[in-house]
Fold (2R)-3-sulfolactate dehydrogenase (NADP(+)).
Amino acid sequence: MEDTRLSLDQVEELALQALLQAGATRAQAAPVARSTRLAERDGIRSHGLMYIPVYAEHLQCGKVLGTALPEVTQPRPAAIRVDAANGFAHAAIDAAWPLFDDTIRSQGLAAMAVRRSYNCGVLGHHAERLAASGLVGLCFINAPASIAPTGGHRPAIGTNPFALAVPDGAGGARLVIDQSASAIAKSEIILRARSGEALEPGWALDADGAPTLDPDAALGGSMVPAGGQKGFGTGLMVEILAAALTGGNLGIDASPFSGPKGGPPGTGQFFIGIDPGAFAAEAFAAAVSRLADTIQDQPGARLPGARRAANRHRTETEGVLVNAALMDRIKTA
């Protein structure tokens, strides 16, 4: 069987049909398929089609409820709560998005707390969605525990990414910061475990807290926080915002995002949207532009998100090359 080159429309349709076949309603599946398209578009393969067999497995074993109906409430003028009902995070976020957007514009800023949720794909895409409409987006998500505190060896928090996106004034994002608390994404550890390739030094610890280059030992141990205790502190901040503040499961109580064991993870997301016009108005755009130019004008330097933008341009023209084995896993999921 040969590798297949797909357009982004075909990527989205392939993902949609696999999720529907696995038991998701269209309301649950369509936002995930769209997220898959965006991940492949930006060259973030670990959150693209590679994840579809995992999603399908989790629909079939009940880790994700494919017929879930998210519930949206607004307990305070600038506060929105979403119960994802153990369905896909993407569908819960979409259900609240129009209210979230309206509230940001009427109040100047708003926060949206999502609980009983699941992996939401590329976090930066949600922040970028806000930036595309002229707003500043700041997003947080907690994940199953995989990072031990500095000096410890038992995982206490997840890779816990945060993302910031700033509007460019032309329907896009001037920059997108999207980073996790770990030295390397856990998806990279999983990929290397599958290929048998050794890890790089400084990425992971084994179950006894000793540094390891063995990806299987790393998956049974913990990730190393980026920047030592500073990275752990960043992850702890995200844990408090995305889990404790939303009512989602702490990472130590959440089931893994991979494998069939443990029931729904029940993690959380916390999104903050800010209308620059309510604060610095026109001065905001000028300040961001000057800051971005200062970075870009230096040879060899690039703005956060620039690599994704370059991948985006190439993929929209050339499409996506899908490995034959992955295509077979998707079609038989």
